[in-house]
């Protein structure tokens, strides 16, 4: 992992925002900006894509620090990193300059916040019991979904969905 990500993180600034985030029920924008400034948004992503590198132990260390300071920020951070990892894992090739590589580079730099949107109405919160469907529509794909909630809703730049690809019976296809 790039040196200093966890040590350059200003956990005190995140903790200072926690009480007002909870009391006002608001998105922890300043804390997410601090995660980006420290390079934490790119933990686990390859350095070739602008990520900080590192692995699960590095990720857990940062989550412990952040969630200990502000639970809401911790959840936003976890969903972002897991979403970015899902995008990375969904392809064996994400070179710099490709659409997937550019999205991952923006996520790593903290310019693009992603999250998981797995909670379908009717699934009882079980991510493996998706009821969302994708269908072809001209040159594109339309996703029919009724999400009950998503961490960072309204603040995320992208949402990672679990949905079956058109023409398949697999409810958890990874490619559309």
Identify the notable features of this structure and list them briefly.
41% helix, 176 residues, two-stranded antiparallel ribbon, alpha+beta, Butyryl-Coa Dehydrogenase, subunit A, domain 1, globular, 2 domains
Uncertain spans = none
> What is the count of structural domains?
2
Percent range for helical residues?
40-55%
The CATH class designation of the largest domain is: Mainly Alpha
Mean pLDDT, nearest integer?
A: 87
CATH arch. level architecture of the largest domain: Orthogonal Bundle
By CATH, the topology of the largest domain is Butyryl-Coa Dehydrogenase, subunit A, domain 1
Strand order of the largest sheet: 1-6
The rough form would be described as: globular
User: Could you tell me the number of beta strands?
Assistant: 6
Strand percentage lies at 5-15%
> Helix count, per DSSP?
6
Summarize this structure briefly.
GO terms for molecular function: acyl-CoA dehydrogenase activity; flavin adenine dinucleotide binding. Residues 12-93 form the Acyl-CoA dehydrogenase/oxidase N-terminal domain. This protein is of the alpha+beta class and 176 residues long.
Mind explaining what this structure looks like?
The protein has 176 residues and is α+β, with helices and mostly antiparallel strands. The chain has 2 domains: 5-112, Acyl-CoA dehydrogenase/oxidase, N-terminal domain (Butyryl-Coa Dehydrogenase, subunit A, domain 1), CATH 1.10.540.10; 119-160, no CATH class. It has helices spanning 5-8, 11-24, 29-38, 56-69, 71-89, 99-109; strands at residues 114-116, 119-120, 133-137, 140-144, 147-149, 158-160. A two-stranded parallel ribbon has the order 1-6. A hairpin with a 2-residue loop joins β3 and β4. α2 packs across α4 (56-69).
């Amino acid at each position: 992992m790039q040196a200093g990500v966890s040590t350059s993180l200003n956990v005190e600034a995140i903790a200072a925002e926690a009480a007002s985030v909870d009391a006002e029920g608001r998105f922890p924008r300043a804390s997410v900006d601090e995660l980006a400034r420290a390079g934490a948004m790119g933990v686990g992503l390859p350095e070739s894509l602008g990520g900080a590198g590192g692995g699960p132990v590095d990720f857990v260390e940062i989550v412990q620090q952040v969630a200990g300071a502000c639970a809401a920020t911790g959840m936003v951070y976890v969903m972002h990193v897991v979403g970015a990892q899902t995008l990375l894992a969904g392809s064996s090739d994400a070179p710099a300059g490709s659409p997937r590589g550019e999205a991952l580079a923006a996520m790593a730099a903290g310019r693009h916040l992603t999250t998981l949107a797995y909670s379908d109405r009717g699934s009882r919160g079980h991510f493996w019991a998706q009821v969302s469907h994708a269908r072809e529509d001209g040159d594109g794909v339309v996703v029919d979904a009724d999400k009950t909630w998503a961490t960072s809703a309204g603040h995320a730049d992208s949402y990672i969905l679990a949905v079956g690809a058109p023409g398949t019976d697999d409810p958890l296809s990874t490619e559309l």
